[in-house]
């Protein structure tokens, strides 16, 4: 096996003196989001305790792919180096129809970026890295085998009832963060329900994930198969992983028992069929198998009094496009720097967290709706549309945008209101810069851990085609208050074109202001309007509308022909525009 799982001894019941203590934050759930939350909070000087009902970290690969924004987040909590030592950068993505290759995307290194666009590491190893780093900062922060049985928000604090191996105790905290997943106790104890964003019918299809090893030199990468030869009405995704492990995600055969389809024996049959289709003669060894549904839903709010939610406890995402854990780390990144402000007596940042993240998450799920309907094809209408899309591809290649979730809109913009400087809310782009000492660095390496300001300044001694930037630490503050007095500053230089393109700073005097999570929220002289509409192209809207109407009205030859014409027209019009 690529990881040696071990059982942790249940953490002891705290003594009476400990139970009387008022903690800053209790995190319920010790998965990747909960561990990252605790680590981020401890780096902010916040006393955080993690309660985990299990006594081991997660099994299997589960959440496998992190995007560049998540890698930057891991850097802020000090674990990116350990993660990248183990991770496998995504090298290529290939799309097939049956066994015929349609197109491929090669992921090349980008000179202005510190991290790859995507990097893969099994969730168990990610949790291992997070746990080891958390132990360094707070050796006893995680309490294994401690199950929350009651939550009482008393206004000034929260009282938790906890059971560990039949012994119960109570714990007091100023805030609770539920990071215990979609089936977690936090949401259920508060009686909260998710709201669907992706149409519920897409979740009717069941998928199997199987990790396996094999002795073969197949180049690494992600391979998406639409209608593989052995199952023309399904989809399958073959991923390479670190440690010589492969993963096949595939649709459970229609009419099959999902639990039976997820047995190692059944999974081995499907993997052998898939390898045979690819012409690979290798013996697979099954390592891990599980099932999932492509759910896309969210809580309406992520703050309920002194209880907040993050990760799958707050929202669930279809796996197409790899957004689930990445959105969870986005939650942590947006909440951790706000928590000290709340502990200092200002609860407004917690409401801002909820408003900001529900906006980003719901729009992300909306963006994934077309590809979720396409990939799951859980009813006859969706299956018919998928067949029509694939048959139209040769004459209308713009239809590709319906097929791969990694091409769906990445949502990071959000509205925060309006000011003269144009409040935007977007992730800061990285930039290769040179310091006054001649060192080549990336801009994000030099940012302070507080709010920051980047200003383009006049530089009479600057070289042609070079821009000079002043980086200033704006200290710990909220979104509107400003720090008085001088702030630490650093001068760097970079390509004029890159500064214009990546930062939007065109002339001396242009400036941007950002938060500890690298979100730019104000930009002078350059107005960037926040986008708040549906993140779909005209073609994607047509596909969703056709799927909705055909699911409601039924499928016949007339509707199928009309749908085909609509898809062709939308694809050709989009390509022309």
Can you put this structure into words, describing what you see?
The protein is of the alpha+beta class and 577 residues long. It is built from 16 helices and 29 strands. A hairpin with a 4-residue loop joins β23 (432-435) and β24. α2 packs parallel to α9 and α12 crosses α16.
- Quote the average pLDDT: 91
Structural classification: alpha+beta
Helix content: 25-40%
- The strand count comes to 29
Please mark out the parts with pLDDT under 50 across 5 or more consecutive residues, or reply none.
416-423, 479-483
Based on CA atoms alone, the radius of gyration comes out at: 25 Å
Distance between the termini: 51 Å
Envelope shape: globular
Portion in strands: 25-35%
Number of helices: 16
Sheet with most strands: 8 strands, mixed
Main features:
577 residues; alpha+beta; 8-stranded antiparallel sheet; globular
Topology diagram in text:
Blueprint: H1 16-19, E1 22-28, H2 32-43, E2 48-52, E3 65-67, H3 68-76, H4 80-86, E4 88-89, E5 92-97, E6 100-106, E7 118-120, H5 123-137, E8 142-144, E9 147-153, E10 158-164, E11 167-178, H6 185-189, E12 195-196, E13 206-213, E14 222-226, E15 235-241, E16 245-251, H7 258-261, H8 264-277, E17 285-293, E18 297-298, E19 303-304, E20 307-309, E21 315-316, H9 324-336, H10 339-343, H11 348-376, H12 380-392, E22 426-427, E23 432-435, E24 440-442, H13 443-446, E25 451-457, E26 466-475, E27 489-495, H14 496-503, E28 511-514, E29 519-524, H15 538-553, H16 557-576
Parallel strand pairs: 1-2, 1-11, 2-8, 5-14, 11-20
Antiparallel strand pairs: 3-7, 4-7, 5-6, 9-10, 10-11, 12-18, 13-16, 13-17, 14-15, 15-16, 18-21, 19-20, 22-29, 23-24, 23-27, 25-26, 25-28, 26-27, 28-29
Helix pairs in contact: 2-5, 2-9, 9-11, 11-12, 12-15, 12-16, 15-16
């Amino acid at each position: 096996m690529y990881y040696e799982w071990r059982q942790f001894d249940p953490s002891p019941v705290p003594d009476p003196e400990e139970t009387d203590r008022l903690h800053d934050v209790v995190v319920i759930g010790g998965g990747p989001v909960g561990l990252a939350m605790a680590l981020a909070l401890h780096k902010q000087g916040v006393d955080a305790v993690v309660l985990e009902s299990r006594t081991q970290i997660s099994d299997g690969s589960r959440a496998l792919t992190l995007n560049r924004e998540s890698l930057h987040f891991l850097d802020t909590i000090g674990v990116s180096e350990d993660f990248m030592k183990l991770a496998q950068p995504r090298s290529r993505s290939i799309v097939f129809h049956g066994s015929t290759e349609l197109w491929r995307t090669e992921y090349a290194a980008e000179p202005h970026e510190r991290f790859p666009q995507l990097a893969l590491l099994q969730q168990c190893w990610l949790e291992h890295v997070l746990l080891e780093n958390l132990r360094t900062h707070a050796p006893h922060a995680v309490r294994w085998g401690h199950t929350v049985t009651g939550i009482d928000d008393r206004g000034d604090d929260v009282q938790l009832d906890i059971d560990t191996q039949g012994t119960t105790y109570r714990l007091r905290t100023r805030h609770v963060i539920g990071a215990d997943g979609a089936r977690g106790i936090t949401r259920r104890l508060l009686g909260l329900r998710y709201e669907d964003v992706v149409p519920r019918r897409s979740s009717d299809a069941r998928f199997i994930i199987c990790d396996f090893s094999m002795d073969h030199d197949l180049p690494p990468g992600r391979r998406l198969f639409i209608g593989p030869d052995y199952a023309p009405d399904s989809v399958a995704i073959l991923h390479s992983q670190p440690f010589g492990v492969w993963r096949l995600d595939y649709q459970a055969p229609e009419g099959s028992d999902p639990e039976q389809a997820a047995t190692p024996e059944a999974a081995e049959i499907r993997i052998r069929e898939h390898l045979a289709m690819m012409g690979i003669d290798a013996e697979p060894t099954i390592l891990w198998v599980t099932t999932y549904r492509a759910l896309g839903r969210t809580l309406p709010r992520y703050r309920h009094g002194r209880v907040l939610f993050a990760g799958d406890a707050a929202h669930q995402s279809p796996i197409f496009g790899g957004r689930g854990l990445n959105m969870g780390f986005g939650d942590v990144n947006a909440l951790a720097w706000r928590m000290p402000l709340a502990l200092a007596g200002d609860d407004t940042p917690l409401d801002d967290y909820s408003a900001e993240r529900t906006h980003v998450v719901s729009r992300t799920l909306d963006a994934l709706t077309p590809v979720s309907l396409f990939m799951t094809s859980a009813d006859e209408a969706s299956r018919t549309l998928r067949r029509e899309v694939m048959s139209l591809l040769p004459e209308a290649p713009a239809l590709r945008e319906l097929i791969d979730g990694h091409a769906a809109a990445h949502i990071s913009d959000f509205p925060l209101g309006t000011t003269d400087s144009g409040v935007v809310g977007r992730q800061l782009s990285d930039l290769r810069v040179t310091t006054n000492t001649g060192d080549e660095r990336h801009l994000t390496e030099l940012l302070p851990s507080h709010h920051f300001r980047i200003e383009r300044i006049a530089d009479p001694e600057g070289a042609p085609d070079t821009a000079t930037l002043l980086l200033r630490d704006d200290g710990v503050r909220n979104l509107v208050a400003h720090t008085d007095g001088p702030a630490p500053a650093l001068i760097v230089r970079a390509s004029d074109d890159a500064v214009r393109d990546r930062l939007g700073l065109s002339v001396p005097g242009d400036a941007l202001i950002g938060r500890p999570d690298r979100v730019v929220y104000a930009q002078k002289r350059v107005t960037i309007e926040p986008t708040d509409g549906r993140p779909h192209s005209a073609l994607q809207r047509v596909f969703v509308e056709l799927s909705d109407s055909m699911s409601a009205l039924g499928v016949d030859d007339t509707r199928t022909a009309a749908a085909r014409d609509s898809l062709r027209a939308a694809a050709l019009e989009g390509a022309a525009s």
